[in-house]
Design goal:
Elements: E1 4-7, E2 11-17, E3 20-28, H1 32-45, E4 51-58, E5 63-67, H2 77-87, E6 92-99, H3 106-124, E7 127-140, H4 145-154, E8 158-164, E9 168-175, H5 180-189, E10 196-197, E11 201-204
Antiparallel strand pairs: 1-7, 2-3, 3-6, 4-5, 4-6, 7-9, 7-10, 7-11, 8-9
Helix pairs in contact: 2-3, 4-5
Length: 205
């Protein structure tokens, strides 16, 4: 599995093309149900708009959807989806609401406007970059704790949990594939005790 990017929260921006108003919204959507719920909320908010075209990409469900919502075929939904694809964003939906300004834009004008509105929404969004990580769990005697912390820091590991009992239990997180040197260092420090390594997980790192 590769790293991926998504958006932190809802963002929006507006562009104008020959007096037509295009309002682009973007939101995080972990599931298709989330995407549809967001789409419906935008439709409710802009109940008087002529079109609410959209596209979304849901990572775990392996879903891509797009809709022109009454615009000429491939002039709205597909351009929005292409913007999403090129951005590298997943688990995200973009909805572009259009208020007609009285002038027909033609196929090229529509594609350009929906593309720009989608790009504008992304430009307003906070992007979160997730990496595939693993957790390493290790127990050490108290005299070894400071040395363990130095080793973890030098290897780029992030401490996510520490428990103090008769020994010190430490859990650290690092990007998957970079843990070999740290594992070796811990084995040397603890005279052969290997840390437990978790299954891969996504985290902001």
């Amino acid at each position: 599995m590769a790293d991926y990017k998504t958006v932190a929260a809802v963002a929006h921006d507006t562009i104008y093309e020959k007096k037509s108003e295009f309002i682009g919204y973007i939101s995080h959507a972990k599931t298709e149900r989330d995407a549809i719920a967001f789409l419906n909320s935008i439709r409710k908010k802009h109940y008087d708009a002529r079109h609410a075209c959209y596209a979304y990409i849901i990572k775990d469900e392996k879903i891509e959807r797009q809709s022109d919502d009454g615009e000429p075929q491939k002039t709205a939904g597909m351009p929005i989806l292409e913007v999403l694809r090129h951005s590298g964003l997943e688990d995200a939906i973009i909805v572009v609401v259009r208020y007609f300004g009285g002038t027909l834009l033609g196929t090229g004008g529509l594609v350009r406007a929906y593309t720009q509105a989608a790009q504008a929404a992304i430009a307003r969004a906070e992007i979160l970059s997730y990496s595939l990580c693993v957790d390493l769990s290790v127990e050490v005697e108290y005299p070894l704790y400071d040395r363990l912390m130095n080793i973890c820091s030098n290897r780029g590991a992030k401490v996510i949990d520490t428990q103090y009992t008769d020994k010190v239990f430490v859990k650290v997180r690092m990007v998957s594939g970079t843990q070999t040197d740290l594992v070796n260092d811990i084995e040397i420090l603890t005279k052969g005790r290997k840390p437990e390594i978790s299954p891969e997980i996504y985290d902001i790192f």
